[in-house]
Design a protein that fits this description.
The structure is a single chain. The chain has 344 residues and is an alpha/beta fold. Helix content is 35%, strand content 19%. The chain folds into two domains: 119 residues, D-Maltodextrin-Binding Protein, domain 2 (3-Layer(aba) Sandwich); 151 residues, D-Maltodextrin-Binding Protein, domain 2 (3-Layer(aba) Sandwich), CATH 3.40.190.10. Strands 3, 4, 5, 6, 8, 9, 10, 11, 13 and 14 form a ten-stranded mixed β-sheet that branches. It has a two-stranded antiparallel sheet with strand order 1-2. It has a two-stranded parallel sheet with strand order 7-12. A hairpin with a 4-residue loop joins strand 1 and strand 2. It starts with a helix and ends with a strand. The relative contact order is 0.17.
Length: 344
């Protein structure tokens, strides 16, 4: 009997000891954030993601009327995202302001910002050195905050039979070296390249610097004031072509977006494949090839920026808050719905 009692005591002691050790281990694990593994698949138990950022969660939203302006590429964001911001924060009043003279665009917006006509501006290109210098001369600095990714898409007539262009071929067309579609694998048809003028927007400036590499437009280029007018001309002109922000081109019903490549053996479309026939438009529209834009596989991409004046005044607060709103999960989702690519 005494041996049985001793065994029982030993078992009870062991159970109590294991319980104490287990409790201590659990306390240590919780305090040191040790991750437990799922016995079924030896994988860590999922960690809860932080609450999704929304506009309403951002503090210190300024009150007042804030003029802003700049890039025409930003129009879909202004129409959709900014409207949602105003719904949540009616006291943060945003008013888009056109220039008194000249066409709206990234460069014009930055100039208006330098001249104290805007609280902040929107740009489809980075700040230039001379713009930084002008700001310093006026006693403040400029800051660019990237908020989205965009691509440059090439629009052609729907009846043009061509598989795509390389970036070098695109350059040669716009500087006047290539003048017939037959030279790039298409039909025997004269090319009519359209463009806005260099001083009329960040998209043209970006194209000039990154595709033309500073070379001048050829004599064959026809200048046209707006993207809307250019797309109408291409729909009528079998040999026409035009470049613009991808969301302005990819979902259109009257023009065809053209695949581009760094080399001729790999053309990447700016739209999700398979291509949706324009005869099915507008019931179905082609969608942006967001994965190719975000990965850099598509050869001509850029970032969109909020340009902020760093002067320790309300204008700086307004610009930084606006950029912060666009960088919330809610802002990024709305940006994606307008046709641009999330930057985070």
């Amino acid at each position: 009997m005494s041996q049985k009692n001793e065994t029982t005591v030993l078992l009870l002691t062991l159970v109590v000891t294991l319980g104490l050790v287990g409790g201590v281990f659990l306390w240590l694990a919780n305090s040191s954030k040790i991750r437990f593994f799922n016995a079924k698949n030896n994988l860590p138990e999922p960690i809860k993601q932080p609450t999704t950022e929304t506009f309403a969660q951002l503090p210190n939203i300024p009150s007042g009327l804030f003029n802003y302006g700049g890039s025409t590429t930003w129009a879909p964001i202004r129409n959709n995202v900014d409207t949602a911001i105003q719904t949540v924060f009616p006291q943060f009043q945003l008013r888009y302001t056109d220039p008194t003279i000249g066409a709206p665009g990234s460069g014009t917006g930055i100039k208006m910002l330098l001249d104290n006509q805007l609280a902040f501006s929107q740009s489809s290109r980075p700040i230039k050195d001379e713009e930084y210098q002008k700001a310093q001369q006026r006693g403040f600095k400029l800051k660019e905050i990237p908020v989205a990714i965009d691509g440059i898409a090439i629009a052609v007539n729907p009846n043009l039979n061509i598989s795509g262009l390389t970036v070098n071929q695109l350059k040669d067309i716009y500087i006047g070296k290539i003048t017939n579609w037959e030279q790039v694998g298409g039909p025997n048809l004269e090319i009519t390249p359209y463009s806005r003028r260099l001083e009329e927007g960040g998209t043209v400036e970006f194209f000039d610097q990154n595709v033309l590499e500073g070379e001048k437009f050829g004599a064959n280029v026809q200048f046209i004031p707006t993207t809307t007018e250019a797309l109408k001309e291409i729909a009528k002109n079998p040999g026409g072509m035009y470049y613009a922000s991808a969301p302005e081109v990819v979902g259109q019903c009257s023009v065809k977006p053209l695949p581009l490549g760094k080399t001729a053996n790999k053309f990447v479309p700016p739209y999700k494949e398979p291509f949706i026939s324009l005869q099915q438009c507008p019931q179905q529209r082609n969608q942006l090839n967001a994965s190719a834009f975000s990965s850099g596989e598509y050869p001509i991409t850029r970032r969109l920026f909020v340009i902020v004046k760093q002067n320790n005044q309300t204008d700086q607060q307004a610009g930084e808050i606006y950029a912060s709103l666009l960088l919330t999960n809610q802002g990024q989702e709305l940006i994606a719905k307008t046709g641009f690519v999330r930057i985070r």
